[in-house]
Design goal:
By secondary structure, the chain is an alpha/beta fold. Helices cover 44% and strands 21% of the residues.
């Protein structure tokens, strides 16, 4: 008789049995996860409470039955269950996400992992599955919402692009006739017979003011489009706000339309520096000043006051004019919102100016507010801008009031409109310039081969060869590499200016081209004229 100590084996078997009972207890207590075991052919050998909850079958329903019952008929027909077991056997595990079917034939979206079970000679599979229908539906709703948001954004971007393009084309079509009108009225005002006739001079002045007003409306529309599409860029520098405001008040005083008004300027006791785009802040201040003048009756007063409050520069424009009703005050900066007051001059616009003032001010991290005690009580607009941290040591105002002169400047004008060419030539010659014209880009290039000029002014939209092809051919000539060439066009978008500078133009002017603007540009490109015919 042989005695063998089997205590350790019995202990191991007891632990294993306890472990199996513990695992079965865990499996049976798990409601969210279906835990299923099958033999190697896919027949169910274990089925927990979670499986019953997810699939609707009880353990008695499924023991000894094939697990294929929970797959959709079309998946069963295509061999999905067998393929899942084959992948698990080959790779050790098989993950799956698909629609599956319950006992009541309802469908739900299920995620599962199938792994291989091996215990001695027994081989089979364990499948852990979970109902993910809610998550899948949530994901679908989120994807649909995201897709809808993207579609809405794309539509809005496309609409803005179309609006931008429409405004650009519209401005181009409007600016050309305005340019012709402006040139003609400038020529008329220089005729001796017109100069000797006060009514004729007054009519010419009214026409000139109307052209300027219409051009400003077009430019304001373009600026609003740039702001809305994020294309309005700022060139920030230190600007002395007092000098800027003083200059604009002086310009406004020189306007005959305000000769019956009192314009007052109250400067601060020291220079006020702000970090701003000089051109855009001039636009803001001029809009506020023009608005005050427009709504102030004859004999009234407009006062511009500079100051500093809480590390901010303040500019207050106060008038004794038409005022703003209490109901209209909250909407005074809205697009096309002109309130209930009536303009007292012939400069009524579209209600764009103040909306643009607010947009540009906010781009500078500033604020602008309007106050009024009511209709007939005058108005006060207060602009606040952050102070610059860089001191420039400015102590006064230094302005050059002399108009730019271009006497002796040799100019070549290139434009396909012969009427405009002849009128513009006559106008520039009245300023002392020596002018030659070309009615096409090709003719202009032919002239430039043999003749020399100080400056060339070229239109952009021309048949056969446009302005960009013209500048490309011009810059290809070695002796014309540094010749100042000014682009003139009815288009006024930021990208047009950038494209022109990249193409080789020295400057860009938007039609209608004011004589003083052209003279200023020519003087900046050619600071001194020592005689005609210097290319560069």
């Amino acid at each position: 008789m042989t005695f063998i100590d089997i205590s350790s084996r019995r202990e191991a078997e007891t632990k294993a049995r306890i472990g199996e009972e513990w695992m079965r207890l865990v499996a049976d207590s798990t409601d969210d996860f279906a835990i299923i075991t099958t033999d190697k052919r896919g027949f169910v050998t274990a089925w927990n409470k979670g499986a019953e909850r997810n699939f609707g079958y009880t353990e008695e329903d499924m023991l000894g039955k094939t697990l294929d019952l929970v797959y959709l008929p079309e998946d069963q027909a295509s061999g999905v269950p067998e393929d899942e077991r084959n992948r698990a056997f080959k790779d050790g595990r098989a993950e799956d996400e698909r629609w599956q079917i319950r006992k009541d034939n309802s469908r739900f979206y299920c995620t599962s992992v199938t792994t291989v079970l091996q215990n001695g000679d027994f081989e089979g599979y364990a499948k852990i599955a979970r109902d993910q229908t809610s998550r899948m539906q949530h994901d679908k709703r989120r994807e649909a919402a995201l897709s809808n948001e993207q579609a809405t954004r794309s539509h809005a971007e496309m609409t803005n692009a179309m609006k931008d393009e429409f405004l650009a084309v519209m401005s181009h079509e409007l600016r050309h006739p305005l340019n012709v009108i402006y040139i003609n009225v400038e020529l008329l005002s220089r005729l001796p017979a017109v100069r000797q006739s006060p009514p004729a001079l007054r009519s010419a002045s009214i026409i000139r003011d109307s052209v300027t007003s219409q051009a400003k409306i077009i430019e304001d529309l373009m600026d609003m489009s740039r702001v809305a599409t994020g294309k309005l860029t700022l060139t920030i520098q230190d600007v002395e706000l007092g000098a800027l405001a003083f200059k604009l008040v002086e310009v406004m005083r020189a306007d005959p339309a305000v000769e019956n008004l009192t314009l007052q300027y109250v400067q601060h006791d020291r220079p006020i520096l702000v970090a701003a785009d000089r051109v855009r802040i001039e636009q803001v201040v001029l809009n506020l000043l023009s608005n005050a003048v427009k709504f102030t009756p004859s004999g009234g007063t407009v006062t511009v006051t500079l100051g500093i409050e809480d590390d901010q520069a303040t500019l207050e424009v106060k008038d004794t004019g038409a005022g703003i009703s209490v109901e209209s005050l909250p909407r005074v900066f809205d697009m096309f919102g002109q309130g209930t007051a009536t303009a007292l001059r012939s400069k009524a616009g579209l209600g764009i100016g103040l909306a643009l003032v607010q947009q540009i001010t906010e781009l500078h991290d500033g604020t602008v507010v309007a106050n009024s005690n009511g209709v007939g009580q005058g108005s006060t607009f207060t602009l606040r801008l952050p102070l610059s941290h860089v001191a420039m040591g400015l102590t006064g105002h230094d302005f050059d009031s002399a108009k730019p002169r271009i006497t002796g400047c040799s100019l070549l004008l290139v434009d396909d409109s012969e009427d405009m060419l002849s009128m513009f030539k006559e106008l520039l010659e009245s300023e002392g310039a020596i002018v030659q014209v070309a009615s096409s880009a090709k003719q202009g290039l032919d002239i430039l081969v043999s003749a020399q000029f100080d400056v060339v002014v070229s239109d952009i939209s021309m048949p056969d060869m446009d302005g960009f092809e013209f500048i490309q051919s011009l810059r290809a000539m070695p002796h014309l590499l540094t010749l100042p060439v000014i682009a003139a066009s009815g288009l006024g978008r930021e990208r047009n200016t950038t494209e022109a500078q990249s193409a080789g133009f020295s400057a860009w002017l938007t039609k209608p081209i004011l004589l003083e603007s052209l003279c200023d540009t020519i003087c900046s490109l050619c600071p001194s004229f020592k005689g005609p015919g210097r290319n560069g």
